[in-house]
């Protein structure tokens, strides 16, 4: 029984590490869902784009371009989305 528990814990740890490595290698910021807790609490609109998906995508492209010019990766620390 103890062997089964240890194997399960090791398996979960390996899967967790594999997912973390996948997120790191994808080099994309982690996003929330459209119907997440923000939408439930009345905050369906984005603070940056006002709920306009086109403007949101444009803002993200602009931030990515700026990061590329500055040699950084990921979102700008001052503009979290």
TrEMBL record:
Give a Pfam family name: NqrM
What does UniProt list as this organism's lineage?
Bacteria, Pseudomonadati, Pseudomonadota, Gammaproteobacteria, Chromatiales
Q: Which organism encodes this protein? A: Alkalispirillum mobile
What name does UniProt use for this protein? Answer: Uncharacterized protein
Bias class Basic and acidic residues marks the residues at 52-72
InterPro entries attached to this UniProt entry: NqrM (IPR007495)
Region annotated Disordered, chain positions: 52-81
């Amino acid at each position: 029984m103890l062997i089964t528990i240890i194997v399960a814990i090791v398996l979960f740890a390996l899967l967790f590490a594999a997912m973390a490595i996948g997120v790191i290698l994808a080099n994309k910021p982690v996003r929330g869902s459209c119907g997440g807790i923000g939408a439930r609490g009345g905050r369906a609109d984005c603070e940056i784009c006002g709920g306009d998906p086109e403007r949101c995508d444009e803002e993200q492209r602009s931030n990515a371009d700026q990061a590329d010019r500055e040699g950084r990766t990921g979102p700008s620390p001052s503009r979290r989305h």
